[in-house]
Model the fold of this input.
Amino acid sequence: LTPEVAPEVVVAGLLEERNRLLRALRTVTHQLISVKQDGERRRANDERVLARLEATVESIAERERHVKSSNPVEVAFPRRIIAFADGCLRLGAELAADVYLSHDDLPLLAAKMLRDAHGGRIVYDAIEIPDYKSRSRRALVPEVSPLEAFLRAYDLGILHEPDTIMTVGRALESHLRGMGFHSVAIENYRYYNEHRPSNAIRLACGVADDDVLALQLNNVYPTFGFETILEYWARLPSRFKLATLGTIYPDHYKASLREKASELGLEARLTLLDPVPYDELADYAGGADFMFMKRTREIPNNDMAMPNRVFDALAARLPICCSELRQIKAFIEEQGIGTTFDPDSFDSFAAAVHDVADNAAEYRARVELAAQRCVWEAHDERIESIFGAGGRVVILGMRDVCNNRRCHRIADTLLRLGGQVVVVGPEPPESPNPAVVYHVVDIEGQL
Amino acid sequence: MASPNDASERNSAQSFAAAQPNGPPSAANGSALGDLLEELQRLRAAIREQRAEVTHARRLLAAEREPYVERQAALRDDIEAGRARIEEFLTTSPRLAHLTPFRQAFTLYSRCAALREEISADAYIAHDDIPLLAAHRLEQLCGGSVVYDAAEFPDRRERFGQFQHVWPRPTLDLMVTYLAPIIRSCRFALTGGEPIADHIRATFGIPAHTIYNARKDVFDGVDPTIRARCGVGPNEVLMLYVNTVGRASLFENLVDGLAQLDRRHHLAVLGNIAPMAPELKDELEERARQRGVADRLHFLGVAPYEEMPRIASGADCAIVAVDPTIKNGSMFVHNRYFDALAAGLPVLSSLNVGARQVFEGQPFYREFDLLCPDDFAATVATTDLKSIRRERVRAFARDWTWSREVPKLVDLFGFASTVTILTVKDVARHQRTRQFAETLAETGIGVNIVCRRSPDAAEPEIPGVNWHRVERIY
Done:
């Protein structure tokens, strides 16, 4: 305090200083609070980061184990295409042939390399649409995976190689034409069979003579939408019974179907039958009243496919009641052997079921005619024109081609025409044809 | 429970309240003034105390965090090491190594699809063939067009066999098969040699343009250090091979040719031995010993890209040798030609129709038959390397710098306001991609680069370029 300064001024200065100190004290107090709160936040954040890093370490370790013990799924298709082609090339002159038949598109690279090595021609059997994304429910999502993109590019690159393309029906034939490729339809007809219907299926299902038994010949999967069919079925008169003949998987799905049937009061009207041997199928199924089939039409492959089940129905002399699918509908209408329905409409479904049941006799008469017309023997000329007669044909397949019925029939016809047949596939044959030479090239390319 | 800071605040508030009860102290009230001064001291002490507490709390927190930080760093190291192990296994395992180009293409595809909003552009430049699948997908998703930069010969069956010769044969056929339709759909292709451009036009039916891998600058001096390193005197002849030595270099033929030349001739290598053939160095040194030229063969190791022209300038000529039976080797005008020009060196080259077009009529360029050691020796013996004027080489070199390529590149991308460059290579080591990006960015085009992160080299900084680095491309 100096005498020159008025006391009021001194007091005011001191008060100002006191206020400044109070502010400073508040600031530092808040700093302390904030440091402690920051500490808690950082600790929580550190814990989170640690947990995330530990999870990443674990997932990398898992990936490392997976990579070292198996084959990375991301590159499964290139690996299989390469391995199969490599295995075929290692068979050397054993596979020199006049014609290389590629069952589906993946073995086409092997066929091309064999042709480059030994000469000959390539025949591509387009048994399904040549676009993997269009073959499954993946078709319903817009995303295109790297594998799907790769396979599309592969198809565009390899489909120019075959000298001849054959396929299974007119819809695929037309699809291939749209891609700029000419093809010849060789439908999956069965050999002609005499009709010897058995009553066993009706007994197995507990169905009376005046009941109508519809038979679903396909395997059933959860993606199939079978629950909707059960709901529709529950609304039909009780004389309409339904049986499935095939595998239902996974196992728990079978139980859930039974549960659903029970909820709908269908226990006595639905029978889930186990598959029967292929040779017995026609007679066994022949005891039903019509074949029932429903597939997702939004999947392009379903829309264009001509499944074996259609011809199994002909062999069993069953009219067909099927959801609307371009190829099957065209065939059914052309032959007059059944009717189709809109799977999104119960009325359409009910009308179709009543139609095949009410007009059974007419349909059966036309089915009998179709069963005589649509037989594998009718393909002889076309097969001869595709493969020639008396040559050596190598059938290449990366699916179980040694046990595939279409390939069996092609081989039989070629042998009958005086040719030699070699089949290369990933599995050995269950019932080998003694006139055919088989080679196994597994998915690792090992012989 | 109240925290210490709550208590401090309460104390200071109490002090303040204690100073207030009767309003501002008057001058007459001496004890009130004393109280005020005491209050000020108390406040200062409280502040000091609180500050000390803050410092202490900070130290405590830092100490508490230390184990977290260490653990996190250790986990990050584990992650990086795990990823490196997986990548190494995938690229070296005999069962899976051949799938590397597919795996890289698929990984890049997935990353690009996820990044599509950030990297959508008018043009997608696929540097080499692996990014073509991803570029094609971006084109489908976002519009724009794909440009294929055929930095090497498009058909991998016609490239060096260092990696590919151990792969199952169908691997390369499958690559050729699936890439062909994508290449056919490209807007145009860029190449590093006119014969490759011809091949692309004929095979894929798309326009193709040559953008040479020219260097930006020419070194004007002569640095004799390399001669000293090799123990080569001014009257001796130092031939410099500037490249990685791999099986496709057919270097053994150069060693055999060297053995036919007089003792004035030395051959030096400025480059690595190919990682896929580490045994090659011992083989070549043993061969040199057998031929009696071990003292005239010098492996000098690798030189940094920017330093190379200066280091090489002390030699008497550059040898560019690649197996001429491989199309990539006989058509592509390799960087090595431009390295030689930048160093002002005459060039002795194995047969290369692309390089021949560039150097046609130049007295400092001669070709020899790499398959025939006698021809190599005869070419060297009949070329008076000492009499070739460096000024003439440099004058030519100044015409063949990157600035010659710039107008072509700018013109080709005149349609684009944004360009995304995709590569699975390490851009820190690939001059071509960097020069493309720099040039396009300088002209005002927005440039994105999607590439792998450089594992051990400094990341290049290019103004105006947005980087999207992929940590690892499995």
In short: Residues 62 and 237 of chain B are 65 Å apart (CA to CA).
